[in-house]
Amino acid sequence: MTEYKNVLPYLKRKAVGTVAIFLRKDNRELFDDDAKLVAEELLMTNVGRNVYQLEDRELTVLSINKGQYNRVIRDLLLIQRRRVEVYEESGKEGFKLVQKGDLKNYDDFSSIVESCVELGELSTVMSVKISGQDGTEDNLVSVVLINPHDMRVTVAEFSDTKNFYYLSELIQNTTPRECFLFKGDSDERPEGYKALLMCMNRANLPSHNIDLPTSNVQALKKQFTSLFFKNDFFEPHVSKNVLAVASALATEMRLLPDYKEKFLLIEYQSAGHLHLDGAAVKALELLSLVNDMDDEPTRGVGTLYDYLNKCRSDPGRRLLRNWLRRPLSDRRQINERLDVVESLIESHGIRTDLSDKLLRQVPDIATIERRLLQKKATLVECYRLYRLIDLSKRFKATASDFYDEHAEEKGAAIKVVMLDPLQEIVNQFEPFMRVIEEFLDMDHVDETGEYRIIPSKDDELNECWKKMQIMEMDAETMMKNFAKKAGLTGLKLELADVGYVFRGTHKDEKSISKQDVQVVDVTKGGGIRFTTREVRKLSSQMEGVRSEYNEHQARLTAEVMEIAQEHTTKLAPLNDILAVIDVLVAFAVVAFHSSNDYVRPELLDKGTGVLELTECRHPVLEEKRSTEYIANDVMLHMRNGDERDTHFAVVTGANMGGKSTYLRSAGLTVIMAQMGCFVPCSKARFSILDSIHTRVGASDYQCNGVSTFMAEMVDCVAILDAAKSTSLVLVDELGRGTSTFDGFGMAWGVAKHILTEIDCFCLFATHYHEMSVLKEHFPERVINLKADTYVDANGDIVLLFKITEGLAERSFGINIAKSVDFPEPIIKDATHILNYLETNTWENAEVLDPLLPEYDEEPLNAAIQEIKRIYFEAEKNKANVSDVCAELLKVIPSNV
């Protein structure tokens, strides 16, 4: 395959971590290791993959189509985090590099990746400084996050626990791709720095050390404020630590001077939200964790985000991910959302109009905002913004009708959440709308797709436009004369980079070539394009006039852009309100179309001690199951609740009996309710919670040197560190990462601490049946629950998936193994060992001890007979007795 020879030099020069894509004619191709990577890890198919013999080597070639090309570029940058280079065939020169980029600099691929929901998350870089007395709870954390994709700088400063629980939560909420720490912290606070590194490891967040700037406060402040867009900018009150951290991070990212005055400032707020750390997000399977280094990507496997994501726009999808990480803990705000969702469920017409018509037209507002901030916007962005505001007016009209329908009952919530913000935004953009209508030629955009200033807005611009019109008419006349002379009927006039050209079909190519023409190009789908001598002369004149026209238009465009940029800071509220509407409509769609009932949760004041979830279901699993889902009740109460004081449930039962699902169902229901969504229950009534803490699963983090048991202990420390009386704690099989006795001891100790020190709601699933003894020590606080099972006459287990009060005396692990056709010898040995461990005797076993090596009984019987014979002749042959006894020891089991 000699056509691939000119590719080889580029493959030899390519860096190992770079993926190169070659564009040849209409083909998009990857070679060797790049082809293998894309075929096996991204496309997961060998279609289009071939191996050719080229000189003395084999060359693997993968051809991809246009749709696959966009997906491959996106996944290489966002998921694989590779550097990508695109080469285009360039005649005799071979190939030339036309595009390159990675996650830090993806400008060449912005049209492909900018619409991805995950890009904003993967673009955030964080820096953290700690201060205070080392080895104590006095941890002051200063954090700065910079996102060059969304053009946001987020600052935060707060006191934290010894193990940095609240920093872990911030990392989970903001999803930075890497973090910069400071060398001085490791010297000044060695214990705190060690705990900080552990926090980074738990979050799977790569960290690097940098130096803290030594400039004075005024210099730091000047550099900090130089980052921000000046319109509507107010000078923030931030500490010296935050200024220093921001300065160091901006220097490390080399933002200045290129990004001067292009960012917006946000102050991170944690108050008013339900606290969820990374362990809870992962254990409850809320989101696809694309940056989870130890696990395979979980996209598409059934997360709560996948289930709730009925959003129609990119802003809505981004907000839904944010709400999942940060549900509310303010009862008033939650009920406002629930009022709107309930009204949307009742108003079928409004919900349908919003979901199927209006929301589908919402563009990626963040892209428009970013281009305006970067001062890269053109008339295209102005037109899109104009259409967006026009769309917002339609949203406002729909919201007004929606309000009128529910004015008496839930109108107040609709007004606050939807109608008032839309009205304010429409009013704020009225000056912009008038300017666009005055300057931008809308009719011309609709007819030709070309964006321009209305020529009549400027005398000089209008004069140039009239000249161009006359020249176009002359070109039309020339085309007609040429067609008449050559006997052609299907010619078309076009304005290309080289000026005016005529386009003919392939069947006219022979007739055209006989004329005095210059061929521009011939394409399979486009036919033949050519010019004549007089057309080229006209094009030369046209070029001068068009250049003058563009100069005048650029001057007027700059005036329009200046007005558009004044409205940049108003785009964030517009983005927010449309995203809120999208997510609330998605909640209503989920509840309305669910196969089972969804109800509005009744929320009680924080601290009232009630958690009642009647017939609670797992929202994701029930949609995936082909059979009827078995719902279960969660009934926990504190002392000041309405009923008994049982708020700690020990859940035992068979493997696969539904214990983990029971825990997750409770956690997901609370999260959905505090997001403002209806919940999968027949009735839900509970007190607002502050936080959810989990210890679920037995994963490790080998790349960070964290074993399974260490991961368990890290999660437990976070629970003991941060859980409060208004928390919900979910613990599933704590202690299984170590020996039975050590594991039970840790499980007992943690459970007792939760009962006596934290005193919060807790569901504690375990296979340590001895944990049920907790009820004897705390009879009013602890309730024993079990996953019901039924064993038939053949010993086969039937899982009922029903959680009832009581104690499961067995885990039925061997029965589960038998049900999946485990080898019979293994089942038999396991049964024998289980009998021994439960009765402390081998009497019921078919062999003496299955833990010992197998032996043959015949040599044993023969040896016994030999002892009897020799015993009577002992005096005659003592040496023989010793030899036989030695042989006997080799065949007699030790317990005989």
Automatic annotation (TrEMBL):
<dbReference type="InterPro" id="IPR045076">
    <property type="entry name" value="MutS"/>
</dbReference>
<comment type="similarity">
    <text>Belongs to the DNA mismatch repair MutS family.</text>
</comment>
<dbReference type="InterPro" id="IPR007696">
    <property type="entry name" value="DNA_mismatch_repair_MutS_core"/>
</dbReference>
<dbReference type="Pfam" id="PF05190">
    <property type="entry name" value="MutS_IV"/>
</dbReference>
<dbReference type="Pfam" id="PF01624">
    <property type="entry name" value="MutS_I"/>
</dbReference>
<dbReference type="InterPro" id="IPR011184">
    <property type="entry name" value="DNA_mismatch_repair_Msh2"/>
</dbReference>
<protein>
    <submittedName>
        <fullName>DNA_MISMATCH_REPAIR_2 domain-containing protein</fullName>
    </submittedName>
</protein>
<feature type="domain" description="DNA mismatch repair proteins mutS family">
    <location>
        <begin position="727"/>
        <end position="743"/>
    </location>
</feature>
<dbReference type="InterPro" id="IPR007861">
    <property type="entry name" value="DNA_mismatch_repair_MutS_clamp"/>
</dbReference>
<keyword id="KW-0547">Nucleotide-binding</keyword>
<dbReference type="GO" id="GO:0140664">
    <property type="term" value="F:ATP-dependent DNA damage sensor activity"/>
</dbReference>
<keyword id="KW-0238">DNA-binding</keyword>
<keyword id="KW-0227">DNA damage</keyword>
<dbReference type="InterPro" id="IPR007695">
    <property type="entry name" value="DNA_mismatch_repair_MutS-lik_N"/>
</dbReference>
<dbReference type="GO" id="GO:0032301">
    <property type="term" value="C:MutSalpha complex"/>
</dbReference>
<dbReference type="InterPro" id="IPR036187">
    <property type="entry name" value="DNA_mismatch_repair_MutS_sf"/>
</dbReference>
<dbReference type="InterPro" id="IPR016151">
    <property type="entry name" value="DNA_mismatch_repair_MutS_N"/>
</dbReference>
<dbReference type="GO" id="GO:0030983">
    <property type="term" value="F:mismatched DNA binding"/>
</dbReference>
<dbReference type="GO" id="GO:0006298">
    <property type="term" value="P:mismatch repair"/>
</dbReference>
<dbReference type="Pfam" id="PF05192">
    <property type="entry name" value="MutS_III"/>
</dbReference>
<dbReference type="InterPro" id="IPR027417">
    <property type="entry name" value="P-loop_NTPase"/>
</dbReference>
<dbReference type="InterPro" id="IPR036678">
    <property type="entry name" value="MutS_con_dom_sf"/>
</dbReference>
<keyword id="KW-0067">ATP-binding</keyword>
<dbReference type="InterPro" id="IPR000432">
    <property type="entry name" value="DNA_mismatch_repair_MutS_C"/>
</dbReference>
<dbReference type="GO" id="GO:0005524">
    <property type="term" value="F:ATP binding"/>
</dbReference>
<dbReference type="Pfam" id="PF00488">
    <property type="entry name" value="MutS_V"/>
</dbReference>
